[in-house]
Structures are given as structure tokens and as C-alpha cells.
Amino acid sequence: MKKLITQEIGSFRKPEYLAKDFHKIEGTEEFRKLAERATIETLKVFDRSGLDNLGVGGEMYRWEMYEHSAERMDGITFYGMVRSFDNRYYRKGSVIDKLRRRVPFHLDEVDFVAKNSHKALKIPITGPYTMMEWSFNDYYESREDLAMEFARIINEELKDMEKLWGKVSGGRKLEIQIDEPATTTHPHEMDIVVDSINKSVQGIDGEISIHVCYSSDYRLLYDRIPDLKIDGYNLEYSNRDTLERGVSDQKRTGFQDLKYFKQINDSLQKKKFVGIGVTDVHIDFIEPVELIEDRINYTLGILSDPELVRINPDCGLRTRSREIGEEKLKNMVIARDNILKKL
Amino acid sequence: MVKTLVYGIYPRSARLRRSYNRWERGLINIEELSDIIREEKEIYYNHMEESGIHQYTDPLFNWYDILRPVILSMKNVRLGPLTRYLETNTFYRMPEFEGIPEIVKNIGEFQELEENPPLPLYQLDRRSSIFLPSPYTVIKMSSFTDSINQKDILNALIREYIKIAKAYERKEIVLFDSFPYNDNNISYLDPLLENNDVTLVTAGNPGEKNFKGLKNKFATVVLGKEDKNILKFSRNLGAKAVDSHRTKIEGISSKDYEWAGVLTHGDYMDFLPREIADIKVNVLGKAGERQ
What we know:
With 343 residues, chain A is α/β, with parallel strands linked by helices. Chain A has helices at 16-19, 22-25, 29-49, 65-70, 107-115, 128-133, 143-168, 190-200, 219-222, 258-265, 289-303, 322-342, and strands at residues 5-6, 73-85, 88-101, 122-126, 136-137, 175-179, 207-212, 232-235, 273-277, 309-312. With 291 residues, chain B is an alpha/beta fold. Chain B has one domain (3-62, 121-136, 149-290): TIM Barrel. The N and C termini of chain B lie close together (5 Å).
């Protein structure tokens, strides 16, 4: 397996021509053309940066990770906006009836990206637990029931994606990333997390990873690694790290709990990979190559095997301008290349 | 008829959200924003009164979370990182206490603070009353430097809260708790109860042990379920008849809350879309008339 694969996590800032009328034109021919143009441009950015895996070209077809899927289901209605923090709001759906997938979520996007790139692609899809957690539940008996319904629907989507992938992949491996930022928000519900993710990916023949970010305790997730039927974990570490150079525990505070990951991973017959977030998507500061190298070297000091380590930003880069996003990705790839030379 | 209460941060309207957005981008100034907030508060007050709500707090349209701007008006405490509020998908800035807090800002004047939002703490028009996060909740939602004794912080917060009540010449205060007390005793609230009508919205199922030692009574203690023992410490009991974390509109039966003298909601309404919060207020008002 390739060592220290570089990848993005999902979203990238949309060009203004696509963002400004996104909701007004979504579903029209005009939207399709603009989304395709933005996807091509973003694939070029990723390619210029030197990424090994180009994802779906920055999720140009999706406004937001929750809303995109929720709007394509029956049984969910939107009453209005709900605060996330400060004066930032999002559309939180209310589940008012039995959930049904009305139309596919991502097939048009995957079809287009696969035909316009020959590199490896990782397809992100919002996971069942996060879909449940970010919805009002006005219909199902329990949170578990709702999460498992989302899992059923996501499994439908993934099965359709697998069929499509067979036609457009050109022999490339199917790579799915389940986005689950809400994973560890309710520690007593980790069983629901595990069961709903496993149901989502049941019968899917491909490489499955999960992306989690800004968890207050990744150990809750690490503890369930033996139960989750997935291959890897793409996680945020830099937001909780210092910006100081060095490979000591004191300098690399954000990465320390990888020691616990290794402890769990070492107990498994088939080891899982971990994609480490080496650049913070919430600051404009462009991490110098040397700092990123320190973060990777510290990780390799713990995990040893570079085939089990992938290199990515903490989360989707949509929070930063396209220019800053590109600079961050470039430094990430240079740092990886420098380390590969020394391995 | 049963008394009804609406408290805490109420969801911003689309107009107010847009206005804040314009203010943040420098497209309107602080005076224009202040005028819009006041107009929006008038709409809120009209809705409360038309719905037959007996007690309502300032809707706190200029608060970004339940700790700001109280914390921002004090010295020896600063705002830390964005932190998840309980198990919701809403975030607040965690206060970091470095010493004993004391109000140092003019809380009655409209002014911009270093970290938004602007003061004043309240614009108490009509019959609106004061909303404050209970000192216990402030402690639970904050971090501290090692040398600080949390009891000193609790007592200091009570002192400052009494100052706030005096500054606004309001005796009706709603204290809000989002954490269960477990074994903690809250009799340190006594000085605040001496001269004010305090409604305490509790979390979990508090018992006598949490209140023991109080010399003064609360006006109302809002509970998750009936507990007549709490009447030793409160003139009235309140019930959480409306859920602020579901959009489904409740059908409140008169039998459900016969034990309660006050009907209110479980958490503050800011977790709901404004459209739904307005309907739930109507339902609450009608339930109050029916009971």
C-alpha cells in the first residue's frame, strides 16, 4: 500500500459565481453547468497542490452536508433556521413522517467527477448518526430508530453508488467516507453510532472510512474501533495542537491521543489507517512545511507504519478562501514529500 | 387559570439575523442595529401579550449565548473557545475565570464590546423581567485558573446579580439552570431571594437536599416532575409543558399539570425555528387559560 497518502476531507470554498445564487438555481441546467465548472476548477486546484486523492472536487454540488441529503428525502420538512453559534444559523429539518429517499444524493456528482479525473477519489456522505442528531425527531419512537432509518437510506444510496462506480471507475477502488462530526456528542449513545454506521455500509464492497472532527473525546470513538466495520479514520488534530515547532509531547498536544489509537489498533488482526489533520481549517495562518513535518513525524513516532497514516486537513476547507485553502494543501504535500524522501 | 412563563433567549427573526449579518459586515452602524433590536422586541412583547403569557423575560436578542454579555461586562473573566452547549448542536464561548468577577461596564448603555454582542444587558420594556444563568450553571459552563475557589465565584456572582436587579429596578428574576444539581446545595442563592421574586428553572429532578438551608423562598421552582416537598422552599411549582428541542406542537391536557401553578418550557426557545417558537408560545398561553 502507498505510504502517507495525501487527501482532502470534502468541502472547498465555492467560487462566487456558484455560491451567490446556489439555492435559486439548484436543480436547473444552469446550476449543473456552474457546478461542473466549479468542480473542474477545484479538481485542478487539488491536482496542482499534488494531492493523491481528489475527493469529489470540493463538494461543489452540495450547499451543506446535512441539508443536501435531507432535502432529497421525503418525511423531512424545514420550518426555519436554528442557531449554531453567534449569528450563524443552519436549516434544521424536522422528521415528521417515515423517511424515504426521494432522489439519489450524490450520483450526478460522482458520475461527473469520476469521468473528469483519473486519480483516486474518496466520496464523502453524511452519516446516519449525524443526520439523526441534526434533525428534530417528531416522528420516530427513539433516537435509535431514527438513526437506523437514516442508515437504511444511506445504505440504499451507497448501493446505487457502488453500481454506478462499476461503470465509471476505470478500475479504481470505491472509497467512501462517512462524515460523522456528531459521533461522540452523546457518550452513552456509542452503540447507536456503531450500529447505524455498520448498517449504512452493509454489503458495500469498497474502502470505508469515517471522518470525525472537534470531538471532545476521541477515546470514545477509539474504544469502538473493533466494532466498527470500516477501514480507516480521517480525524481532526491540528485545531487542538500548538503552532510551535517540535516533536515532543508538549509541542504536539493535539496528537497525543494517537497513542491510545495505536493501543487499540495493535489489538486488531487487520489494522485500521488514520488520516491525520495536519492543517487547521479554522485559521488563515498557513502552517509552515516544517510544522506539518513535525506533526507527521510525531505521528510516525507513535504509529511507525507509514502505510497506516494518511495526511489531510482537519476538515473541509470551505471555511477558508480558495487561495488560502490551496496554500495549505500545497504545504501539506511538500511536507509529506520531504518525509517520504527520508523514510 | 394558571400562570405562564416564557424565558431566556428567544429565536431571532429572519430580519434580525440579516441585520446582525449586515452589522457584522459594517453595512449598518450600532445605532441602526439597536433600533432594529428594539423594534423586534416590540413584536416579541406584542406576541407574548396577545398569546396571554403572564410573565416573560427580555428576549435577549442581543445575547449570543446564555452567558454573554453578562460575562463580558465583568472583569477577571474572559471568553474562551467555542464549546458545545450540553448535547446540542449549538455552541457557546466558554468563560475563563482568572479572579473574582465584578461588573465594570455600564450595563444599561448601548455599546459595542470587544467580543460581540453589544450591551445593554436588557431593554426591559413592558412587563418583561430579568433572565440570568444561575451561578451554578455559569460555574459548570466555565473553566478556572487553579488558584480560584469556585465558592468565591458563586458568591461573587450573587453579589453582581443583586446589583443587576437593582440597576434595572426589577424584582422579578428568572434564574436558569441547565445542569442537574446532583449533591450540590444551592442555599448560597439566599441573598438574591431576600428582595427579589426569583423563579428558578431547574434541570433534572432536584430534591430537598439541594435546597436545604434556604431562609427565603423562591417565587416558583420549575421542575421536570411533581415534587410537593419543594413547596417548603418555593411559593409555587412550575411545570415544563413545552419542549424546546422538538418542533412537534404539544397538545397540553389540563390533567397533565394539575400540580403546577406555572406552565413554561423546558429549555430556552432558541433551539427552535422562530416560526415554531411563536406557535408554541400560543399553545402555552392557551393552556394557561384552560388549566
